[in-house]
Design goal:
By secondary structure, the chain is mainly alpha-helical. The protein contains six helices and no strands. The chain has a single domain, classed as Ankyrin repeat-containing domain (Serine Threonine Protein Phosphatase 5, Tetratricopeptide repeat), CATH 1.25.40. The chain is globular, with a radius of gyration of 15 Å.
Length: about 80
């Protein structure tokens, strides 16, 4: 996967967001003993919309095979089709 493709990948962007959260002061100040499981999780609808918006065809196909709802909307009522 080329660097350009990788940086536009929805999956890559989500992982980068999670890394930034784990390193954030807010996360560090929680005072809770951390386990290996991540605190922040994206809903499957959010993941599907992000993949569509990023044009990540492979991720979209994988999510559709797992049962993603093509009629999922964001808070503004826009579907994945609107975003692409």
């Amino acid at each position: 996967m080329s660097l350009e493709t990788r940086s536009s990948s929805a999956l890559f962007k989500r992982n980068e967001q999670l890394k930034r959260w784990e390193e954030s002061e807010t996360n560090k100040e929680s005072g809770v003993i951390k386990n290996k499981e991540r605190k922040v999780k994206f809903s499957s609808d959010c993941v599907f919309l992000a993949a569509c918006g990023a044009g990540d065809k492979e991720e979209v196909q994988r999510l559709l095979q797992k049962g993603a709802d093509i009629n999922t909307t964001n808070v503004d009522g826009l579907t994945a089709l609107h975003q692409v």
